Amino acid sequence: MLSKLIKKHQTAYATIVIWLIWYLIHLTMQTKVVPNPFDAISTFVRLLSGELLFHLGASTLRILISIIFSLLIGGTFGLFLGLNDRFDRFFGPILYLLYPIPKIAFLPVFMILFGLGNTSKIILITVIIMFQVLVTIRDSVKGLSRTMFLSVRSTGASKLQIYQHLILPAILPKALTALRLSVGTSISVLFFAENFATRYGIGYFIMDAWTRINYLEMYAGIIAISLLGLFIFKSIDLLEQWACNWASLEKGEQSSYFK
Amino acid sequence: MIEINKLTVSYGSKDVLAATDLAIADHETIAVIGPSGCGKSTLLYSIAGLIKPTSGSIMINGKSLLEPRMETSVILQDYGLLPWKNVYQNVALPLSIRGVAKSVIEDKVNALLNALHIEEQINKFPVQLSGGQQQRVAIARALIAEPDLLLMDEPFSALDATVREEMQDLILNLHQEHKLSLVFVTHSIEEAVILGKRIIVMQPNPGQIKRIITNPHFGDVKFRNEFAFHKLCVHVRQEMEGI
Ligand SMILES: Nc1ncnc2c1ncn2[C@@H]1O[C@H](COP(=O)(O)OP(=O)(O)OP(=O)(O)O)[C@@H](O)[C@H]1O
Ligand SMILES: [Mg+2]
């Protein structure tokens, strides 16, 4: 009964639990650093109609633009390398070496090369998400079975139709998973990057509130950045449900095998 | 009419199929059997136009085969169904690719699903089907374009014995009904003898045809239980063991 209710309202359930824990910590610790969650929320709501919305918008825009660029670039190169073994032999080892490098270390370089403004931040986040998307898509294209290719080709499908019926639907769920994995990282990175040479963005807002020792505003910022993350995750979920409902048939049965 | 002339397929310096000649008449059925790696699939894919020969040629109805033909359907070993398409969409694929009108596709798919007794699975995805049902979907997809040539690579190897016999009977009926030529690869001697008017025994290194056995009993309804059936099976086995 209860577990059914939770399953139906997962986000609401999690929110309530987190607020309760937050409130308990607030009560036991009695420090200004952990304010009353209800005060934080009312501050958040109050600020949202002004200043905060502006910062939230700036961050959201940076993330969304980066996601679009990384899907386009990472997707194209991932497909290309996955479908052309000869090129992958040259680029594969290089990618392998670059993949684990924390790209954030290049923020200073990007700022020198592309300026202190939005461009360097967007490029940094694009690079982070792009790598994940590129590697995931390349590997999932390579993992497509030969018989699937042959059976579609035997129907007389053109190259374009092979993309339409075989390659794109096959990689879409994998690409969304890659996105989900890398968006978390990229929000943290954005938070960091927004502390340099900008006066807009949720990262700037939080750190600015901190230096002003205004903890309620700081928490309002934290709530905002959490909502940004939640918004992106939920959008990916929706996209997945809409476009890849077949993929969910193959997972989620593990616990029933394990009895 | 299929004429295969000195067909050679090589990977690198290795001849996987060496100078193979074969003629297949209209409405004939050919079983291809032989040890693993002797080039059975390679021969089948070549006839499908999916592999470019290194040398030699394949002519189908007087035309040189350069790419997959619209009138040839292929069923591959693991069926090659697309996991993101449901039964309807999988079966409709060859027609959607040809740009056939939606209403025509709908009628044809429904008719075939009914004929193959899988109409209840129409909205299911391949993972939700049993092996035998997946097999039927693959057959429906192969038949939807009304082929004159059906190629199958070990189509029944994943099925248990009863479903397998059911499928073999189904294929025999379809062959009679639709007047198509049939070339199929199998590991099962019994299956080769039941479904093959001629049985091609292949041998490896390099892949080539070792012997062609004509099956005088092809098409007998109760053939499976007769003495002649077992005699022919033994004959095929001896040919294979002599490799
Ligand atoms: N893409 C490829 N590249 C290199 N060698 C290949 C390739 N495909 C097949 N071969 C080789 O060609 C030979 C024949 O392969 P084929 O798949 O035609 O065998 P088969 O008779 O169908 O075997 P099986 O019964 O195991 O399916 C094998 O030795 C195989 O290793
Ligand atoms: Mg094979």
TrEMBL record, chain A:
Organism domain of life: Bacteria
GO biological process: transmembrane transport
Transmembrane spans: 12-29, 63-83, 95-116, 122-141, 213-233
Keyword set includes Transport: yes
Residue ranges annotated for the ABC transmembrane type-1 domain, each copy included: 56-240
UniProt-listed CDD domains: TM_PBP2
Cellular compartments annotated: Cell membrane
Keywords for the protein's UniProt record, in alphabetical order: Cell membrane, Membrane, Transmembrane, Transmembrane helix, Transport
Membrane topology: Multi-pass membrane protein
One GO CC term on file: plasma membrane
Family named by the database record: Belongs to the binding-protein-dependent transport system permease family.
Protein name: NitT/TauT family transport system permease protein
From TrEMBL, chain B:
Protein name in UniProt: NitT/TauT family transport system ATP-binding protein
Entry-linked PANTHER family: BICARBONATE TRANSPORT ATP-BINDING PROTEIN CMPC (PTHR42781:SF8), SPERMIDINE/PUTRESCINE IMPORT ATP-BINDING PROTEIN POTA (PTHR42781)
SMART domains cross-referenced by the UniProt entry: AAA
InterPro entries: AAA+_ATPase (IPR003593), ABC_SmlMolc_Importer (IPR050093), ABC_transporter-like_ATP-bd (IPR003439), ABC_transporter-like_CS (IPR017871), P-loop_NTPase (IPR027417)
Pfam family, one: ABC_tran
Domain (ABC transporter) ranges: 2-229
GO molecular function: ATP binding; ATP hydrolysis activity
Keywords recorded for this protein, A-Z: ATP-binding, Nucleotide-binding, Transport
Superkingdom of origin organism: Bacteria
